[in-house]
Amino acid sequence: MDRLGRLLLLSELRVRNAAYDVSLSRSLLSWKRRVSSPVYHPFRPSMCHSVPVSEIISVREEEEENVSKQIDDEGSWKKIREGERKDCRQTFTVSYVERCRQHRWRCAEVTFTCPDRVLCQSWVSSIREQLASITSRPKHLLIYINPYGGKRQGKRIYEQKVAPLFAHAGILTHVIITEHANHARDHLRTNAELKKFDGVVCVGGDGMFSEIIHGLIWRTQINSGIDVNCPDETLTPCSLRIGIIPAGSTDCICFATVGTNDPVTSALHIIVGDSQPMDVCSVHHNNSFLRYSVSLLGYGFYGDVLTDSERKRWMGPARYDFSGLKMFLTHNYYEGTVSYLPAKGIMGTPRDAARCRTGCVVCQHNGQKAEKYELDETSDCESDGEWRTIRGKFLAINAASMSCACPRSPKGLSPAAHLADGTTDLILVRKCSRFNFLRHLLRHTNKDDQFDLNFVEVHRVVRFRFTPRHCQSDSDLELDLLDNSKSQIFSQICRDHPACGCAPAYSSWNCDGDILTHMAIDVRVHCQLIKLFARGIEKPQVFEDLSNPCAL
Ligand SMILES: CCCCCCCCCCCCC/C=C/[C@@H](O)[C@H](COP(=O)(O)O)NC(=O)CCCCC
Ligand SMILES: Nc1ncnc2c1ncn2[C@@H]1O[C@H](COP(=O)(O)OP(=O)(O)O)[C@@H](O)[C@H]1O
Ligand SMILES: [Ca+2]
Fold it and tell me: HSE of 31 in the Cβ direction (CA atoms, 13 Å)?
């Protein structure tokens, strides 16, 4: 088939000794069993298969074991010399992506037997030509492995599950096993010869991914002459894509962009050259740059869980359960002021039932809008001065730039958040009783709406600031006094539960799994600043795919 959908090749080949009509177009490889009788047979396995060319991993030619021998005139087997094999049967094997349950991908294989070598070679070269024309596939990757993340299995996971697939797909790799924290970040900032590579892969958790984006974003901004300390600068998007092989404790960035934490699935998304843009928040304090964040920025509960859990790293991923329970029982609250700039004129709200999925129209629409804003500086909504301010006592202040779905919370902290819409969902959990807070937390783990509680509010924003109470100006503190008398509804919640014994405290920020000790921060979302080797979570497949000629 050419561009118009015509076939490039059509032959009768054999698959496991049965005859199939096999066809190749620019977009699809299909094989359909030849049937002698047209009678429908309910128990016969599916007789028609098709694989998008974009999901073929590789093709290799093989000689069938018994075809390198032929029966001679006397009726005995003789070996065939090179050049005599033109009429032998030859096989070629195609490896391709097969979808399994819960968004997992596997590498499947099908072997086709051709009547002669010439036909076999023509099939192999046609498929290879189609694969070579896919320019989005990486050929050379820079790989960082954190040997200490998660259950300390990063090196083994890479060597046993991922490296063989990359080799199979003909991808060259340069592997660095990190020797200390920030090794990968600093190498990317200064030493890595990035021009040689088509992408960077990290084997580890969210903390390791954070190192990679810090190295790449920093280098990209320095090369473009951008002052990273200025929160108002428009940042330059990074050109290299990033792959994540999950080998950490939460692996929320992998889970929320792929739908599963499975190293083989992630490796296959890298091999087929997927691309998923992603928002990045910059975090500043007093006009000096602190960090970037792509998933959760959490003050209060999630900040304290992280700080406490770091001291229990020896427990592995279970440290989060232990510290989670401990901080829940501690039940501290945190006073301060949150100001935010609501996202205007965008599609979507944090309470939507729709989810961000592969090819998300909300991300496409809002991404184009954000691009226009960047070009037309005067229309920057920040100059509209529509900042809103909330003072109060909070158990948690969370900003989720993506759903933050992970195995602990399959729908995430903000289930309707988008990966690439240029916004973050600011979730404020006011001081309330332990019982109510537990109701909210449990809703992270089940199907109920965690925002449908009177002490929780959520806003979709493009920028926000937090100032803890002790950093507030005198005039703000006076306003606090006034507000306190007005906001009786919330203080009431705790008086109703005197046993809860809330204590005021100061927390730190959990920034994608890194602790930020500065409490007063200024956060701005940069729409689609980085790209991942992913495609977002796929929608469930339609049983009868009309693009599949077999279905017709
Ligand atoms: C008492 C019942 C509590 C049930 C609460 C379950 C809620 C879980 C929500 C998890 C959100 C995770 C957001 C992602 C955070 C990660 O970036 C961070 C670091 O990950 P990694 O580097 O892979 O270790 N993980 C956490 O902060 C763990 C939070 C766990 C809180 C219980
Ligand atoms: N070789 C190393 N030794 C110690 N720490 C490291 C090393 N390489 C990376 N790190 C740090 O380990 C931290 C946690 O890594 P991560 O892969 O996210 O695992 P986890 O999900 O278990 O937290 C990261 O913040 C990273 O900076
Ligand atoms: Ca977002």
Answer: 16
